[in-house]
Amino acid sequence: MATLTNEEQIATAIYTVNRHAKTALDNKPLYSLKKQAIDKMLTENKAKKVGLHFVRNPKNSQQQSSVLIQCADYYFHVIPMKEDFKKLPHLGHLDDTYRNPIRKMNLKVAKQLLVDYIGPQPIIKQPTKKTTPYTSQFSSPQKWYEQNRKSYFDR
Question: Degrees (nearest 5) of the Cα angle 96, 99, 101?
Answer without folding.
Answer: 175
